[in-house]
Amino acid sequence: MPRNTETTYKTLQGRRTGKRSSKILVPEAEGALNSMKRSIASEFGINFDVDDKGSYTAKQCGQVGGEMVRRIIEQMKLEMVQSGRNRFQ
What we know:
By secondary structure, the chain is mainly α. The chain is built from 2 helices and 2 strands.
């Protein structure tokens, strides 16, 4: 029996009835994130500029999202190192 949590979707005849929980927390970053997504997708040979993205597999989209997360984490690590150096100089 599935638990009723925020991330569980209720279904009615195979259709989602719940709201999606993902939302942009920093609206100013949306353009930069979309640009990063298109850039990474093109590195993987995927054209995200088309209107119909339904032809892409979950694996392809997951690769792009995973690489975005890796690069964002790497950038944050670099910023943390830089801010730590500036604090102790």
